[in-house]
Amino acid sequence: MTAADFRRMALRLPGAIEAAHMGHPDFRVSGKIFATLGYPKRDFAMVQLTPEQQELFVKAEPKSFTPVPGGWGRKGSTHVLLKTAKKSAVREALTVAWRNRTSRETR
After folding, report:
1. Which end of the chain has fewer beta carbons closer than 10 Å to its terminal beta carbon, N or C?
2. Could you give the angle at which helices 3-12 and 87-101 cross, rounded to 10 degrees?
3. Per the domain annotation, does 86 fall within a domain?
4. Enclosing domain of residue 30
């Protein structure tokens, strides 16, 4: 899985746009960030999950999904190590993160 793959998957979600946050690309829907790319290093991404969703992804794919350190991670922010991640798992995680950020009216 590459950063370009991640970017394409994120931008295929309805209403998703790419912007920038703290010097790295992010992906937003309805003005809310649901994923980022290239932080803390180039080969990482982040998806914004709930703590319960994070637990499921980490258990299913522990080499690819890990909680972000600190408070953000306890709230569900989840790192994705792109080089070990399966496209199907990342697609699912992006979709879940996107749904978490969309309002009920846009679903």
Report:
1. C
2. 40
3. no
4. 3-47+57-75+92-102
